[in-house]
UniProtKB/TrEMBL annotation:
This is VOC family protein. Residues 1-122 form the VOC domain.
Length: 122
């Protein structure tokens, strides 16, 4: 039924203006706004819908992953832009906040609404 339908994901935030600044200025994504919602235009033609929600509760899982060639460079650049990386109990991370114990190197951070995002090396 949906084999030839373009699907996209979305998630909620509590402040569209703050989300627009964060995704557009801090992360450098192309962002458009229409009908009080944002569309994040991801490389490769993928769009992600960001919509306002009263009484927003941040997702407790990663809602968006950003693959990079060099995680150390990405983490350094994001840190310089004011991004703080999460440190979760039981997951050993290095001084930059990168988890390297298993799988690809990955570091988690949150948007202004508290939703979890990641940058991971591929």
């Amino acid at each position: 039924m949906f084999g030839h339908t373009k699907a996209y994901s979305g998630f909620a935030v509590n402040d569209i203006a703050a989300a627009k600044r964060f995704y557009g200025q801090t992360l450098g994504l192309r962002v458009s706004e229409e009908h009080g919602m944002l569309t994040l235009h991801i490389e490769g033609g993928t769009d992600v819908l960001v919509y306002p929600k009263d009484n927003h509760t941040p997702a407790t899982f990663t809602v968006l992953n950003f693959p990079v060639d060099d995680i150390d460079k990405a983490v350094t650049e994001l840190s310089a832009r004011g991004v703080r990386f999460e440190r979760y109990e039981g997951l050993p991370v290095d001084e930059k906040g990168v988890f390297r114990a298993e799988g690809p190197p990955i570091a988690w951070f949150t948007d202004p609404a508290g939703n979890v995002l990641s940058v991971l090396q591929e």
